[in-house]
Amino acid sequence: MSSYVYKTTRRGVLLAKTVSYQVRLCSGNFRHLEVLKDENNVAIVTMKRAPVNSLNTELLTEISSVLTDLEETKCSGMILTSFSDKVFCSGLDIYEIFKSKPSAIGTSFSTLLEVFIKLYGSTFPTVAAITGHAPAGGCVLGLFCEYRIMVQNFKIGLNEDQLGFNAPSPIVKLMINTIGHRNAELALTSGRLFTTSQALQVGLVDEIAKDRTEAFEKADGFLRRFEMIPPLARNFTKQSMRRALLQDVTINREKYTEGFVSMISLHEVQQSIAAYLDNLKNKKRNAH
Ligand SMILES: CCCCCCCCCC/C=C/CC(=O)SCCNC(=O)CCNC(=O)[C@H](O)C(C)(C)COP(=O)(O)OP(=O)(O)OC[C@H]1O[C@@H](n2cnc3c(N)ncnc32)[C@H](O)[C@@H]1OP(=O)(O)O
């Protein structure tokens, strides 16, 4: 099976089937990620955990490790995307939080917080090229980036309430910061998934693309906005805007993890997750 590879150039991003002048990041050997860098030191990080990029601890750990690499190698920007033209990321791996040991749930969540700290707090500009659905943790991953470009006709949102549990308070704050209090309350209490165009309307995404290629062109356009801005000044401003949330999660990481584990381990929540999984399977069965 041939897979598309993205070749970035000074003037834009081209979809190509060649790896002729790309530099593969050598410092990591990843199972669920492809990391490519162009000559301008822009990294394209592609999640490739088939079929739906569900975030298990292994994928989260790999993302965390890439982010460390990108900081150390002074990357000038990052595009986060998916191998799939249908799903950007389906959220936390439900099977890691369903009927699992508290320690496993805790590790998964704590690693997600680690990704938050590194991605939300990164010194380089970040953009998500959302090439498909992005429910729950998938939306969260997009929200950690500075800018979101989403391909039309998919769904994105925080549907945790549909699974029987609530989004932790830092994520509520992040959602409020992004779409405002009123929209966030309405969306979170109903576990709403927005279509791409609805997401644009409320500001959950910043631009719509008609397909993957356009999403990459727009992502590249976003990164090029900063070519003339001194990186130090840009980063100071970014950090000052993000400091409160970053400090909260950094200081209270353990507390948030314990809270998440206790909530997920509740019998009623496990029952809701079981019902949600049945529903997911039935939907699939009925579609065939
Ligand atoms: C300030 C910040 C501080 C940080 C705080 C962070 C706190 C964040 C909290 C975030 C909490 C998140 C909780 C979650 O993310 S729970 C996961 C919720 N996910 C979902 O509800 C999505 C469920 N999936 C779907 O809706 C659909 O699968 C899809 C993604 C729309 C794709 O549909 P499609 O028709 O293409 O594919 P299928 O439905 O047939 O799925 C294919 C197989 O993949 C399995 N699958 C799907 N999703 C998941 C998942 N999340 N985990 C594990 N497995 C998943 C599905 O069962 C199919 O498997 P099968 O082929 O074996 O049947």
TrEMBL record:
Subunit structure: Homotrimer.
GO cellular component: mitochondrial matrix
GO biological process: one example: fatty acid beta-oxidation
One Pfam family named in its UniProt record: ECH_1
Name the record gives this protein: Enoyl-CoA delta isomerase 1, mitochondrial
GO function terms (MF aspect): delta(3)-delta(2)-enoyl-CoA isomerase activity
Subcellular location: Mitochondrion matrix
Main localisation: mitochondrion
Function of the protein: Key enzyme of fatty acid beta-oxidation. Able to isomerize both 3-cis (3Z) and 3-trans (3E) double bonds into the 2-trans (2E) form in a range of enoyl-CoA species, with a preference for (3Z)-enoyl-CoAs over (3E)-enoyl-CoAs. The catalytic efficiency of this enzyme is not affected by the fatty acyl chain length.
Domain of life: Eukaryota
Catalytic activity: (2E)-tetradecenoyl-CoA = (3Z)-tetradecenoyl-CoA; (3Z)-octenoyl-CoA = (2E)-octenoyl-CoA; (3Z)-dodecenoyl-CoA = (2E)-dodecenoyl-CoA; (3Z)-decenoyl-CoA = (2E)-decenoyl-CoA
Pathway info: Lipid metabolism; fatty acid beta-oxidation
Keyword vocabulary terms for this entry: Acetylation, Fatty acid metabolism, Isomerase, Lipid metabolism, Mitochondrion, Transit peptide
